[in-house]
C-alpha cells in the first residue's frame, strides 16, 4: 500500500479537526463575542477524544432511485428556505467590469512557476555538514508597515523563493528538531508522515490549475468566478459538508476551466457538478442528484448533471486526489498542539483566499503556512518557531510576502466576501470574522 493510500485509509480519523471543534465547543462554552467584550479569542484547550462517528456504510452506492420518506425529510431539512436561484440573480446583477480583487498587472506565470520544492529537495536532504545559522525572527509589527503592505509587485515577484539562506535554515531545523511523538495520535502516522507529506507536495504541484485560464474564457471574467464561489459557499454551508469538499470543489472548477472553454450559461452547471463530484469523493453521505437539481433551481435536469459529471471527470483524467489545505493545516497545527483558536482563525483566512484569483497558482501548503502565521500574529501567540518551520517547510521570511496579500483580502470583508463573513460570524466559528474585522480596524 502506497504512502498516500495509507493517509487516505486513515481519513476518518485524520479529519479530526472537525471532531475537535465539535468536542471543544461542547466542553468549553466560552465563545468569544467581540461586540460585547472586545477581547482576543479565549484559549479553549485541547482534547484527544474523537468526535461523534457517522455510519460508514449507510450510503456507499449513492444510488437514489426513489427518495425514501427519510431522504425526503433530510432534503427539506438540508435546504430549508434556501434561495436556489441566488447564483443566477447575482450573476444577472453583476456589471461586467474588472473586479476589485483582480490585479492584471501581476505576472501570474511567476506565481505558478515558483514551485521550487523539487528543485531544492535534494539539497534539503543533503547530510553534508553546514554552519549553524542564527535566525532573527521578524516582529509582527512589520505587518503595520505601510511601505511593506502595499508593495504588491515586489510581493508577487518574490513569492515562494528558496534562497540559499532558506535552504540552510531548513536543513538545520530538519537536522536538529526532535519531533514530539504522541502515541495516541495515530492520525498523523508518525512513521510514514514525512513520506506521506512529501507525496502530497508532489500532488499539489501536479494538480495545480492554470492561474491565467481566464484569458482563454471569452465569456468570463474573474468577478464571475467570485460570484460562483460565493454561491457555492452558501450551498456548502446549507448541506453541512466538510471543508475538504469545498476546497476540492473549487480546485475541480479551476482545473476544468483551465482545459475547457465554456459559455457563461454553463458556469453554474460546472460549479454544481464539481460540488457533486467532490462530495462523492470526500463525504460519507453526499447529496443526491435530486438535491443538486433543486440546488440549481431546476435550471438543469438530473440527466444533464450526470452527463456533465461524466464529461468533467474524463476531462480531469479521473484525477481527484488533490491534497487540499486542510491536510497541511493539520500538519502545521501540530506545532501549536492543535490550538483551537488558531485553527479556527486560519480556516477563516483560508476560505477568504478562494475568492481571490491571485491565489489560484499558489500552492495550498504555502497558503496554509501564511494563514497560520497571520493567525498567530493576530492572536499574539508568539514567533514562528522551529517547530512551525519543521512542520510547514516554510521560513518566516518566505511567508511575509504572502501574508501581505492575505491582509489585502481582509479589507472590506462584507463587500467582497459577505457569505464567508456571515458564516464565520456565527458562534460555531467563535465569531472569527468579527474578530478579524476589529483587528484590522485597530492595525490599519
TrEMBL record:
What superkingdom heads the lineage? Eukaryota
- Annotated Cyclin C-terminal domain ranges read 323-438
Q: SUPFAM superfamilies this protein is in? A: Cyclin-like (SSF47954)
Q: Which GO terms describe its molecular function?
A: cyclin-dependent protein serine/threonine kinase regulator activity
Q: Using the record's annotation, list all stretches that form the Cyclin-like domain.
A: 230-314, 327-408
From the UniProt record, give one GO term of the biological process aspect.
cell division
InterPro entries named among the record's database cross-references: Cyclin (IPR039361), Cyclin-like_dom (IPR013763), Cyclin-like_sf (IPR036915), Cyclin_A/B-like (IPR046965), Cyclin_C-dom (IPR004367), Cyclin_N (IPR006671), Cyclins_cyclin-box (IPR048258)
UniProt keyword Manganese present: no
UniProt KW keywords: Cell cycle, Cell division, Cyclin
Task: List each coiled-coil range.
Answer: none
* Pfam families linked: Cyclin_C (PF02984), Cyclin_N (PF00134)
Indicate yes or no for the key word Signal: no
Give the similarity note. Answer: Belongs to the cyclin family.
- Protein name as catalogued: Uncharacterized protein
Amino acid at each position: 500500500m502506497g504512502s498516500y493510500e495509507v493517509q487516505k485509509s486513515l481519513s476518518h480519523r485524520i479529519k479530526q479537526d472537525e471532531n475537535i471543534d465539535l468536542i471543544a465547543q461542547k466542553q468549553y462554552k466560552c465563545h468569544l463575542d467581540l461586540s460585547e467584550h472586545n477581547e482576543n479569542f479565549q484559549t479553549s484547550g485541547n482534547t484527544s477524544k474523537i468526535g461523534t462517528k457517522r455510519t460508514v456504510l449507510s450510503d456507499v452506492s449513492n444510488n437514489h432511485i426513489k427518495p425514501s420518506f427519510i431522504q425526503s425529510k433530510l432534503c427539506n431539512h438540508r435546504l430549508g428556505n434556501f434561495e436556489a436561484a441566488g447564483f443566477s440573480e447575482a450573476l444577472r446583477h453583476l456589471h461586467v467590469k474588472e473586479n476589485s480583487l483582480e490585479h492584471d498587472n501581476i505576472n501570474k506565470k511567476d506565481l505558478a512557476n515558483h514551485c521550487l520544492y523539487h528543485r531544492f529537495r535534494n539539497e534539503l536532504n543533503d547530510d553534508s555538514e553546514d554552519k549553524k545559522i542564527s535566525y532573527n525572527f521578524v516582529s509582527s509589527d512589520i505587518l503595520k508597515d505601510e511601505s511593506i503592505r502595499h508593495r504588491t509587485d515586489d510581493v508577487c515577484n518574490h513569492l515562494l523563493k528558496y534562497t540559499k539562506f532558506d535552504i540552510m535554515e531548513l536543513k538545520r531545523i530538519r537536522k536538529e528538531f526532535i519531533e514530539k511523538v504522541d502515541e495516541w495520535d495515530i492520525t498523523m502516522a508518525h512513521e510514514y508522515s514525512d513520506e506521506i507529506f512529501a507525496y502530497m507536495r508532489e500532488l499539489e504541484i501536479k494538480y495545480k490549475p492554470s492561474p491565467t485560464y481566464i484569458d482563454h474564457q471569452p465569456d468570463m471574467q474573474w468577478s464571475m468566478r467570485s460570484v460562483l464561489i460565493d454561491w457555492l459557499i452558501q450551498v456548502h454551508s446549507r448541506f453541512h459538508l466538510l471543508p475538504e469538499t469545498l476546497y476540492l470543489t473549487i480546485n475541480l472548477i479551476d482545473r476544468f476551466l483551465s482545459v475547457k472553454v465554456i459559455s457563461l450559461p454553463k458556469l453554474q452547471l460546472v460549479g454544481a457538478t464539481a460540488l457533486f463530484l467532490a462530495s462523492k469523493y470526500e463525504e460519507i453521505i453526499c447529496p443526491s442528484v435530486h438535491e443538486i437539481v433543486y440546488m440549481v433551481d431546476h435550471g438543469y435536469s438530473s440527466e444533464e448533471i450526470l452527463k456533465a459529471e461524466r464529461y468533467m471527470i474524463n476531462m480531469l483524467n479521473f484525477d481527484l486526489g488533490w491534497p487540499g489545505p486542510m491536510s497541511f493545516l493539520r500538519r502545521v497545527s501540530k506545532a501549536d498542539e492543535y490550538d483551537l483558536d488558531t485553527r479556527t482563525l486560519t480556516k477563516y483566512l483560508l476560505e477568504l483566499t478562494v475568492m481571490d484569483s491571485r491565489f489560484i497558482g499558489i500552492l495550498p501548503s504555502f497558503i496554509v503556512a501564511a494563514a497560520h502565521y497571520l493567525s498567530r500574529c493576530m492572536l499574539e501567540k508568539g514567533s514562528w518557531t522551529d517547530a512551525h518551520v519543521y512542520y510547514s517547510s516554510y521560513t518566516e521570511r518566505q511567508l511575509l510576502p504572502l501574508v501581505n496579500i492575505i491582509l489585502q483580502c481582509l479589507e472590506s470583508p462584507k463587500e467582497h466576501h459577505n457569505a464567508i463573513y456571515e458564516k464565520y460570524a456565527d458562534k460555531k466559528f467563535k465569531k472569527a470574522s468579527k474578530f478579524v474585522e476589529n483587528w484590522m480596524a485597530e492595525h490599519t
